[in-house]
Amino acid sequence: MDIARLLATCGINVPKIYAEDLPRGFLLLNDLGNQTYLEVINEHNADALFEDAFQALLAFQQLPMDAPLPSYDVALLRRELELFPEWYIGRELGISLSPQQREQWQRASDLLIDSALAQPKVLVHRDYMPRNLMHSEPNPGVLDFQDAVYGPVTYDVTCLFKDAFLSWPESRVQGWLSQYWHQARARGIPVQDDFDEFLRASDLMGVQRHLKVIGIFSRICHRDGKPRYLADVPRFFAYIEAVTSRRPELAELSQLLLSLRQPAGAHA
């Protein structure tokens, strides 16, 4: 509720609240349409749709950080990362980490957390992806922002292009990231001064999120009895492998993941 009002102050197209009776669980909202970006986006219209998504993202990243929202801190980042060994390694693969593997995981986690915490902070949607953007007027309509926090500036733009259900060629993603970075700098949003530094921060932020999501999808399968999400796990491993192949500081994480997936190749 409060986050919707906050986003609306900078012109974001969020569900408008016409009437509310919270004790009885009723809200009267406007309709943002019935088609998400995920349903309509393709290689031909992606530039235009993502440009609209940039404008909304840039608008709420310019908001002053004075709302009572939590921050992406060490505890939250680590709690998210630990979903991977608990639910994917332990439950999905049925593997117990050796002491050496646990140390490898700890060092890799620390690297990802340190990178995230070193980034400038802005308002972060946390799930700014095509499934949560509605094709509407004005475009886009923005949904599922209830978990917003203050956190790393690269988080949402990385999430936008490295989606659970849709992949794009690396060259095209880098072009979009460049467009975003130049526009963000022009508007005074605290992105990294150097584009290569921005790309590195985005890469490492993406790996943190991908590991978290693999853990979440495994938890949904084993705790909630919904295995269909596991079909998208290979997409996230592909994202991770693309990053580890160009980031030597993630070599240890790459080795760990390879050692875990060898006895269970079907999960790769």
Give a description of the structure.
The chain is mostly helical. It has one domain (35-267): Aminoglycoside 3'-phosphotransferase, Chain: A, domain 2 (Alpha-Beta Complex). It contains eleven helices and six strands. It has helices spanning 2-8, 37-40, 46-61, 74-81, 83-92, 99-118, 155-161, 170-186, 195-224, 233-244, 251-261, and strands at 17-21, 26-29, 121-124, 133-134, 141-142, 149-152. A hairpin with a 6-residue loop joins β4 and β5 (141-142). α6 packs across α9 (195-224). The longest helix is centred in the last third of the chain and has 30 residues, at 195-224. The chain is globular, with a radius of gyration of 19 Å.
Q: How many domains is the backbone divided into?
A: 1
Helicity range of the residues?
Answer: 40-55%
Summarize the biggest pleated sheet.
2 strands, antiparallel
Task: Specify the CATH homologous superfamily.
Answer: Aminoglycoside phosphotransferase (APH), C-terminal lobe
Q: And the CATH topology? A: Aminoglycoside 3'-phosphotransferase, Chain: A, domain 2
CATH class: Alpha Beta
What would CATH call the architecture?
Alpha-Beta Complex
Strand order across the largest sheet: 1-2
Strand content: 5-15%
H-E string? HEEHHHHHEEEEHHHHH
Shape label: globular
Taking all residues together, what is the mean pLDDT?
93
Secondary structural class: mainly alpha
Report the uncertain regions: 264-268
Number of strands: 6
Alpha plus pi helix count? 11
Cα-to-Cα separation, first versus last residue:
40 Å
Oligomeric state of this protein = single chain
Rg from alpha-carbon coordinates: 19 Å
